[in-house]
Amino acid sequence: MSPTVQNPTPVISATGLFTPADSISNAELVESFNTWVAQENAANAAAIEAGEAEPLAASSVEFIEKASGIKARYVLSKAPILDPEVMAPRLAERPNEEISVLAEIAVKAAREALTRAGRDARDVDAVLCACSNLQRAYPAIAIEVQAALGIEGFAFDMNVACSSATFGIQTAADFIRAGHARSVLVVNPEICSGHLNWRDRDSHFIFGDVATAILVEDKAIAPALHWEILGTRLKTEFSNNIRNNFGFLNRAAPEGVGQPDKLFKQEGRKVFKEVVPMVAEMINGHMMDLGLEASGLRRLWLHQANAGMNRLIAGKVLGHEASADESPTVLDTYANTSSAGSIIAFHLNSDDLAKGDTGLICSFGAGYSAGTVFVRKAA
Ligand code: COA
């Protein structure tokens, strides 16, 4: 596609979603965790009895649901995660000649977005893989996705943790405004199960696996049924309260245990306390600058990390307790899927909106990082 158009205007043409076949319920998860806890405590009984070691505490379904709103999570590798001897995903390493698993799930989500937009992959100009954890350093996963779909142009990976998708949308929109591309595919493959410490009681329930895709295009070539982008805004502020030290300078934790510092960890309470006001203020400021009012917001597609955080943020934006229709959740079935969460919420809960309806896609998470994307349905 020729990148020479006057006043290009970026819009969201379509989204796509890939959901793994297997799901783990809280009951299944807690049973496995508590079996491991009982085994550990039995193995350390003498030390515990002598006061030399603390017994491990059990997890509970009630706590998980009350603290997070999560009831289940989809995963790519269910049996090993539930096996008390393993408690980590086991995805066979693939030869270099085969597509990587991260690229594979990204391609599945991308194909749905392309189909929904009626877009031939050959007419896409760029691919951004925007996600929390990349399975290798290089070649970029985005370039592998580009090749698998037969796309010309350019592709690269970017990581802003849970805010990767909104940062990807703004990046794609900027490429379009600048005339560097007219059709940009943003993919968010999230294999969160690989960086979750399934033996950490405080967080073992938090994440799930999924992939989403967003096709950002110049309005001139977009399908009639698209979403105008009224404005995007990004914010980062350094914090150690959500951290994952996995990386090529650090030794990997192939068993998913024994090196908890190389897996996800957080100070959940601090995150809750610090991120809620930061995000609410950001949304309200951006909304005001765009000349929008809360009463005119039809729906909020918020990052899906925690039901309590979303309730508080939505309340601070709307001025009243949000209904499920105003701020839909996918936490119950998908759990936290990092950057993909707000896009899943949007993908599954936007077809019913009418022409002219305005809404907000919003992400927040590690970094800290946050992104707001105000959209309006065009048809
Ligand atoms: N099962 C049962 N009890 C548990 C438990 C589990 N799995 N995990 C913790 N508890 C207990 C704690 O031991 C504590 O008990 P105590 O009061 O007797 O000391 C109690 O529950 C409260 O623990 P706490 O960790 O303070 O829970 P919380 O109410 O803060 O909820 C989070 C925990 C993580 C759900 C919450 O802090 C949160 O959502 N934070 C934001 C997370 C987030 O969005 N992160 C972004 C990632 S991208």
How is this structure best described in words?
The protein has 379 residues and is of the alpha+beta class. Helix content is 32%, strand content 22%. It is built from eleven helices and 13 strands. It has helices at residues 26-43, 45-49, 61-68, 78-82, 101-117, 141-149, 164-178, 268-289, 307-318, 331-334, 341-348; strands at 10-18, 22-25, 72-75, 126-130, 154-158, 183-191, 209-218, 227-236, 242-243, 265-266, 297-302, 358-365, 369-377. The strands form three sheets. Strands 5-4-6-7-1-8-13-12-11 form a nine-stranded mixed beta sheet, with helices on both faces. Helix 6 (141-149) links the parallel strand 4 and strand 5. Helix 5 (101-117) crosses helix 6 and helix 8 (268-289) runs parallel beside helix 9 (307-318). The radius of gyration is 21 Å and the shape is globular. The model has no long low-confidence stretch (mean pLDDT 95). The structure holds coenzyme A. The site of coenzyme A has 21 residues, from helix 3 and helix 8.
Element layout with pairings:
Layout: E1 10-18, E2 22-25, H1 26-43, H2 45-49, H3 61-68, E3 72-75, H4 78-82, H5 101-117, E4 126-130, H6 141-149, E5 154-158, H7 164-178, E6 183-191, E7 209-218, E8 227-236, E9 242-243, E10 265-266, H8 268-289, E11 297-302, H9 307-318, H10 331-334, H11 341-348, E12 358-365, E13 369-377
Parallel strand pairs: 4-5, 4-6, 11-12
Antiparallel strand pairs: 1-7, 1-8, 2-3, 6-7, 8-13, 9-10, 12-13
Helix pairs in contact: 5-6, 8-9
Bound molecules: coenzyme A (COA).
Coenzyme A (COA) binds next to helix 3 and helix 8.
